Amino acid sequence: MHELLDDAGLEQSAVVANSEMNRERRLAGYRRELGFDPVAWLAARPGPQRWLDVGCGSGLALFEAAETLSGRAEIIGLDLVGYFRGAARPGIELVIGSVLDYAPDRPVDLVTGVHVLHYVGDKLGALSRIASWLTADGRFTANFDTASVLRADGSPMGRKLTAALRDNGFRYDSRNRRIARDGHGVPHWEFAYLGADDHAGPNYTGQDGVNAHYAC
Known about the structure:
The protein starts with 6 loop residues before the first helix and ends with a strand. By secondary structure, it is α/β, with parallel strands linked by helices. The chain is globular. A 7-stranded mixed beta sheet has the order 3-2-1-4-5-8-7. 23% of the residues lie in helices and 26% in strands.
């Protein structure tokens, strides 16, 4: 097993600072990858909404969504690299930062993450942070692969992980490798984060990902 990296070291990794990752994906790609239409969901809810997209890439999908929503939602795009294809504008805030450091200034109604968790070190820590950002009736959905969350010796956690996800209010779709949650929460994990391996190799997407290791 390769030497494990902390969050600061991981963010300097070529695997994570990947200019091709999710850069040009448009809104149709979000619907396909997440099995969920964020714009339709936001538009169907009463009152102003807040949508945080983690790992927004170029931001093209967010610009497209803003035109459809016509001011009915405040949209925040968060990306570690920040190769945005446009400037922030009314209704859209673009932030350069990590999901493990950033925090919205008030609760959000929707959090999405298209393939971004594959490149996060402390994946369970990220899930905890995201759950705490949601409104009471908010929603979170993202791509997530339990095969990238390992024990200290590199073996898979298996059912222990999926049971912990369920006990903490998350739904995991193993067939499509998606995770979802409804409503605010503060998850508690009986695992201690040890670090990340950026030499994990290709995951189910065909691109190199990052494995997270935990003592359990």
